[in-house]
Automatic annotation (TrEMBL):
PANTHER family: ABC TRANSPORTER PERMEASE PROTEIN MJ0413-RELATED (PTHR30151:SF0), ALKANE SULFONATE ABC TRANSPORTER-RELATED, MEMBRANE SUBUNIT (PTHR30151). Gene3D superfamilies: MetI-like. InterPro entries: MetI-like, MetI-like_sf. It holds the Pfam family BPD_transp_1. Belongs to the binding-protein-dependent transport system permease family. One of its GO terms (cellular component) is plasma membrane. One of its GO terms (biological process) is alkanesulfonate transmembrane transport. This is ABC transporter permease. It comes from Comamonas kerstersii. The chain crosses the membrane at residues 92-113, 125-144, 150-169, 247-267. Signal peptide: none annotated. Residues 84-264 form the ABC transmembrane type-1 domain. Residues 1-11 have a biased composition (Polar residues). Its main location: membrane.
Length: 282
């Protein structure tokens, strides 16, 4: 009797991939944090050592430990809250006005070419004028109060928002617009559902740049007629030769700029969630 025997070898199940343990995950996170923070660690270490070793006089460069002590003293006296609050109010007011005006005018110029052709020469002239150069003009018109300080921050933050908004609108894929028109979409629908979402990444880039410029202009805005603010703290500490407090003001301005940039990036991520789905399908 001839029989064909078929040997069946049981298939070995693939071994499940071992998930990293709790310790391994935290080691990986710590390693990534160290890699990202290495430059900062080296920078602050060198900064601490230079005045302590006498390479640079401590009268000119206070070590970070003294700067932290100065920040602690400002917190204990309540001065830190006063300075941060004043700077935040001025920076936020100028930035919000710049975003509102820049986005509105940028959308108008980007959509209507005749408006852009009419206003572009004038705006190209104005954008060459530094906010610092206009500071005396703002003082003449608005005095030394809060309005002149907000005006200089507005001027510095307005241009990146405007230019990036115009660029974002003009770079919208024309195929998307023509496709919407061929399907009978109205102009308002095309603007709300096609142009505005497509231009939003460029608009948010301009807003984040404006946030950085608003912090930079803050120091100039608080140069004259201020009694509070981080810019005032920095300049006043330099005049009375309180060097640790001066560096404390500089560090706090940098931290304020980082916090503002993080908040704007978080806002951009929330308002443009649709982009993640689009990138996934691509």
């Amino acid at each position: 009797m001839s029989s064909s025997t078929v040997s069946t070898v049981p298939q070995q199940e693939a071994a499940p991939t071992a998930r990293p343990s709790f310790i391994q995950r935290h080691r990986r996170t710590a390693r990534q944090w160290l890699e990202r923070s290495a430059a900062l660690i080296v920078f602050f270490a060198v900064w601490e050592l230079l005045p302590r070793l006498g390479i640079v006089g401590s009268a000119f460069l206070s070590p970070p430990s003294h700067v932290l002590q100065a920040i602690g003293q400002l917190m204990e006296s309540g001065q830190l809250f006063k300075h941060v609050t004043a700077s935040l109010q001025r920076s936020a007011s100028g930035l919000l006005l710049a975003v509102a005006a820049g986005v509105a005018l940028g959308l108008l110029m980007g959509v209507i070419r005749r408006v852009e052709a009419f206003l572009d020469p004038l705006l190209q002239l104005f954008r060459q004028i530094s906010a610092l150069a206009l500071f005396p003009v703002f003082l003449l018109f608005f005095g030394i109060g809060e309005v002149s300080k907000i005006a200089i921050i507005f001027w510095a933050a307005f241009w990146p928002v405007l230019l990036n908004t115009i660029s974002g609108v003009q770079q919208v894929d024309k195929l998307l617009i023509h496709s919407a028109i061929s399907m009978g979409a109205s102009r308002s629908f095309i603007f709300r559902k096609v142009i505005l979402p497509a231009a939003s990444p460029s608009i948010f880039t301009g807003i984040r740049l404006a946030g950085a410029y608003s912090i930079t202009a803050l120091v100039a805005a608080e140069m004259i007629g201020s009694h509070a603010g981080l810019g005032f703290l920095t300049l006043n500490s330099q005049e009375i030769f309180q060097i640790p407090s001066m560096y404390a003001g500089i560090v706090l301005l940098a931290l304020l700029g980082l916090a503002l940039n993080y908040l704007l990036a978080l806002l951009e991520k929330r308002l443009t969630r649709w982009r993640s789905g689009l990138q996934f399908h691509e």
